[in-house]
Structures are given as C-alpha cells and as structure tokens.
Predict the 3D structure of the following.
Amino acid sequence: RKALPPPDPDAFDARRYAAPQGEVEVELAAIWSELLGHPQIGRHDNFFELGGHSLLTLRLLERMRQSSLSADASTLFQSPTLAHFAASTKRIREIVL
C-alpha cells in the first residue's frame, strides 16, 4: 500500500448533503434511514447506492403504505434518488364512510 500513490480527490463522490425538502421527502428519508441503517439521508442519495435491493424495495413499499404513501416498485428503479422518487410518490387518502 505504501507504494501506491494517494488517490486523486476527484476519485471520490463529492456530492454534498442536501436536506430533504417537503413533507413527502422528509417522510421517505425517515423510512429509508430506518430500512438502510443510515442516520442521514439527503435528497440526492440513491436508494441502491446506499445498500437497497429488491427485497428492501418491497419492505419500503409496505412502510410507505403504512404512512399513506404510494408508488410502484418500477418507479424506484427508474428514479432511485430520494428527490426524484418523492416527486413520483402519491399520498393515499382514505375515504371514511
């Protein structure tokens, strides 16, 4: 290892943390944090880069349903960042008769 040159600073992902914006992003960030075991989820974080996989996707969709949020699994695969996924997420409104 001593013979290797130090890594170029551009070799690291330099995305800066951006706090979730809006009610849906904040709720999704809390769910992602719980499922993925990351204490801080930013709006540009990618579900799959943080360790998400197809089985966690199913758990995510169930937790979302419990929080009155709805989205398709395919939406997460097409828009895996928090901000983009939240933009495609709908709020479920229960009708009480």
Observations:
- The chain has a mean pLDDT of 90.
- The first strand starts at residue 69 and ends at 70.
- The two ends are 68 Å apart (CA to CA).
- Helices lie at 22-36, 54-66, 73-78, 82-87.
